[in-house]
Specification:
The protein has one helix at about 60-65, and strands at about 10-15, 20-25, 35-40, 40-45, 50-55, 75-80, 85-90, 95-100, 110-115. By secondary structure, it is mostly beta strands.
Length: about 120
Amino acid sequence: MAPDQLVGCFVVEVGFRQAWPYLGFCDNRSTPPQESRLYLDTDWCIEAGSRVRGTADDEATWLTAALTLNGATIAEAHVADDGTLLIATTDRRSLVASGQPEVAPIGEPWWLSGSSSR
């Protein structure tokens, strides 16, 4: 799934898989519904009334901050020229994931997985 395809999807899960924080998205507009996950291996910032910043290693901070996005519908999602991912919800919450990988990255700074390739 491409980032712009997240528009209209909603957040259905927040978690960690091995070393990577993630958000799960569901698109109920298709039959059958499509799900995808956004994994992070970079710095991130969530704004939901207050601003919380962290890295891929900040497990407790991620879980607490990302829970504010659970259930939210995505209004905007795009990638900036520097690779930064920007996601905004219909109720003005947002996630920004840096386009720069952490110091010792395993792969991309962020990626989407799911029913279609990233």
